[in-house]
Amino acid sequence: MTTYLTLCHVDEIPESGSKGFHINNDLFFAVKKCGEIFLYRNECPHIGVPLEWVPDQFLDSSKTLIQCANHGALFSIDTGECISGPCSGQSLQKVPFEIIDNQIQIVASN
Fold first, then answer.
1. pLDDT per residue over 12-47, tens digit each?
2. Integer angstrom CA distances of residue 39 from 1, 20, 29, 70
3. How far apart are the C-alpha atoms of 1 and 11, rounded to whole Å?
4. Residue 28 sits in which domain range?
5. CA-to-CA distance for 35 and 51, rounded, in angstroms?
6. pTM of the model
7. Domain CATH for 92
8. Which of 1, 40, 75, 98 could form a disulfide with 66 if both were Cys (CB 3.0 to 4.6 A apart)?
């Protein structure tokens, strides 16, 4: 039987907004764009550090790209691909999830 961990209710993430999560020893963040949720590991592919300096702020000022606060790299919300910065061509790691009863849920790791 699959065990799920609940991150949050989908309404806890504002439209064109983001939210970070610390589950066990893993860091994740979710972005809501046009009502769709995108979930990634909170780890920059350039140097492996968390992307944000301020809690829950993962987007650039236009709220159209994910931004690494450490060195300014910009990532596509839809794909996680770095489109500008020192990690161009690399991507954020997508995290598979399900929405069950309007809750964002990930499979619990063993």
1. 999 999 999 999 899 999 999 999 999 999 999 989
2. 23, 10, 6, 20
3. 28
4. 4-107
5. 22
6. 0.94
7. 2.102.10.10
8. 75
In this structure, what token pair is assigned to residue 29?
């963040």
57-64, long-range: CB < 8 A, 24+ apart: 57/18, 58/18, 58/20, 58/29, 58/31, 59/16, 59/17, 59/18, 59/31, 63/16, 63/17, 64/16
Q: Contacts from 71-78 at CB under 8 Å and sequence distance 24+?
A: 71/44, 71/46, 71/47, 73/44, 73/46, 77/31, 77/33, 77/38, 78/33, 78/38
Pair of tokens at residue 82: 């770095």
Distance separating alpha carbons of residues 89 and 104, to the nearest angstrom: 28
Question: In this predicted structure, what is the pLDDT of residue 51?
Answer: 97
Three-state secondary-structure class, residue 102: coil
